[in-house]
């Protein structure tokens, strides 16, 4: 059975819907394992079906890691859902590089464009960066010297170094590569902006005659400081909230000593609930919940991602990094979108100087670009029906 990717034609794609398809599949083995533990008396046929489904999902993930390479990177620490999430983050970055680079390539036939750039000390040819082998080579360079390149990531974007409980060089490498690609998207956007400025200067007489809107100004906004200030504030709020709950518990425990009858029962019930709240309260979890509502130019960080992503592998530090990355990436992508909207308004100028074909690139959707770079738009997977445990298999996957 083929499952189609959610192609909605957006020029500012969000990844939640794409990731959720993979998460629903990747969660199946762990759900089946949990079901087996809860039902130790399953017959041999049911156990065999569970083994077959688990193997099928494992084979599916391995196949996807090849199909979506180099965007899907198998980790030494296997976390399928994180791997899928990172892959779709990269593919969205790819979309935001692909169109500017292709437009710049066309414009370079009219005005000179320097495609050689330096990112974090690494020389990059923008005309080659869309090639998978080129990306694999640069990624390997970064991961082979992870400490060197991780140190070049601004402190506000540095995670997995122990601050929130996770220290992992492998994930530091993935974070560094994600930051590297964000810098590439930013460079492509800025280069497109300056190249259009050069194009207008080269054909100033035509431009002035047409009376078209000026190219939008690239906004300056310190996302790193803004987000870090939010996190630090939420961290302090979390400590205050935990202290408040503990103080409430102490008061109830004192009241319980002098209470009787129904009132004591009510207090005891409250004590049980608050103790449960304290046991489940974490500073990192509080930060994650608060970050979801942080707004950046009218968009919450949760909306930027595309909504909640259902997962059964929860690493709060990874969730924090996800929100921070979403804010950083979206701000750059939004700048590119403003330029694209402006380009559509200057069609008469582009037609007059023989570059009307640039508008063709702006009709490309995310899924159009996925096809162009060789990513299939459907998933072929048919899992056998398991009637006795059907509720374990997510809808649409059976």
How far from one another are the termini? 9 Å
Low-confidence stretches: none
Estimate percent helicity.
55-70%
Q: pLDDT average, as an integer?
A: 89
Strand percent estimate: under 5%
**Radius of gyration, rounded?**
26 Å
How is the main sheet built? 2 strands, antiparallel
Structural class: mainly alpha
Number of helices: 16
- Summarize the helix and strand pattern as letters: EHHHHEEHHHHHHHEEHHHHHE
Strand order within the widest beta sheet: 1-6
In the residues, how many domains can be counted?
Answer: 1
Shape: globular
Count every beta strand, where a strand is a DSSP E run of 2 or more residues.
6
Notes on the protein architecture:
This protein is mostly helical and 398 residues long. The chain has one domain (2-234, 288-392). Helix content is 63%, strand content 5%. It has 16 helices and 6 strands. The strands form 3 sheets. Strands 1-6 form a two-stranded antiparallel sheet. The chain is globular.
């Amino acid at each position: 059975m083929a499952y189609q990717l959610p192609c909605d034609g957006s020029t500012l794609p969000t990844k939640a819907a794409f990731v959720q398809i993979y998460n629903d599949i990747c969660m199946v083995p762990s759900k089946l394992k949990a079901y087996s533990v809860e039902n130790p008396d399953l017959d041999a046929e049911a156990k065999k079906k569970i083994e077959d489904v688990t193997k099928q999902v494992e084979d599916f993930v391995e196949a996807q890691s090849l199909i979506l390479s180099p965007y899907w990177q198998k980790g030494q620490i296997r976390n399928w859902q994180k791997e899928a999430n990172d892959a779709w983050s990269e593919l969205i970055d790819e979309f935001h590089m692909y169109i500017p680079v292709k437009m710049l390539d066309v414009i370079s036939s009219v005005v000179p464009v320097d495609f050689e750039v330096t990112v974090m000390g690494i020389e990059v040819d923008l005309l080659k960066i869309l090639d998978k082998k080129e990306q694999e080579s640069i990624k390997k360079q970064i991961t082979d010297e992870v400490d060197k390149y991780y140190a070049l990531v601004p402190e506000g974007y540095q995670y997995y170094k122990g601050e929130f409980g996770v220290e992992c060089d492998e994930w530091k490498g993935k974070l560094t590569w994600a930051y590297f690609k964000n810098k590439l998207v930013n460079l492509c956007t800025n280069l497109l902006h300056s190249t259009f400025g050069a194009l207008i200067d080269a054909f100033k007489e035509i431009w002035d005659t047409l009376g078209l809107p000026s190219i939008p100004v690239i906004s300056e906004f310190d996302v790193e400081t803004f987000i870090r200030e939010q996190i630090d504030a939420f961290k302090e709020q979390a400590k205050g909230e935990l202290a408040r709950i503990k103080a409430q518990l102490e008061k109830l425990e004192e009241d319980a000593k002098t209470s009787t009858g129904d009132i004591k029962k009510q207090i005891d019930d409250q004590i049980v609930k608050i103790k449960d709240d304290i046991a489940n309260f974490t500073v990192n979890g509080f930060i994650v919940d608060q970050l979801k509502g942080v707004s950046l130019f009218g968009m919450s960080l949760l909306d930027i991602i595309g909504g909640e992503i259902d997962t059964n592998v929860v690493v709060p530090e990874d969730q924090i990094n996800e929100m921070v990355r979403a804010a950083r990436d979206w701000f750059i992508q939004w700048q590119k979108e403003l330029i694209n909207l402006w380009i559509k308004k200057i069609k008469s100028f582009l037609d007059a100087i023989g570059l009307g074909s640039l508008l063709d690139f702006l009709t490309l959707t995310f899924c159009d670009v996925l096809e162009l770079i060789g990513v299939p738009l459907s998933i072929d997977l048919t899992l056998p029906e398991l009637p006795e445990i059907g509720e374990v298999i997510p809808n649409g996957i059976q």
